[in-house]
Amino acid sequence: MLRRCRFLREAVDGLGLADRVAVVQERAELVGRDPEHRGRADVVVARSFGPPAVAAECAGPLLAVGGDLVMSEPPTTDDAQRWPPAALAELGFGGAERVEAAYHVVRVPLLSPTGDRWPRRVGIPAKRPLF
Q: Could you give the C-alpha distances from 43 to 46, 63, 131, in angstroms and in order?
């Protein structure tokens, strides 16, 4: 994680985005419970983070209502199976939609605040995914 975060910080600085982008080196479950970060992000970007259930549970608490989880995805999948609407709604998300881009990307909007019970303790989202 250290090398990845160092690279991201350099990229953010190099692109002149330091006033708008935060790179946080910490477990996502812990950052999602930190009042400094909870409910404040307009966008959470996930690439090679984990399966959709883990990414959604960890990203939801970080997002402000109206914000988006943007995640890289395999080129051909059954989005309804990978991103079940009922499970997403439990976390405050709307439906997942494919975005036309150079990469295969899914955008999932947060429609209502993620409940205080999310994210669960460190490691639990991956060990016992919601969907």
A: 10, 7, 22
> What is the C-alpha to C-alpha distance for residues 44 and 60, in angstroms, rounded to an integer?
9
- CATH number of domain containing 90: 3.40.50.150
Query: Pairing mode, if any, of strands 41-46 and 63-72?
Result: parallel
Q: What is the domain range of residue 82?
A: 2-127
Is 119:92 a contact under the CB 8 Å cutoff?
A: no
Question: Tens of pLDDT along 7-37?
Answer: 999 999 999 999 999 899 999 999 999 999 9
For the chain, the domain total comes to 1
Structure tokens at 45: 């970007």
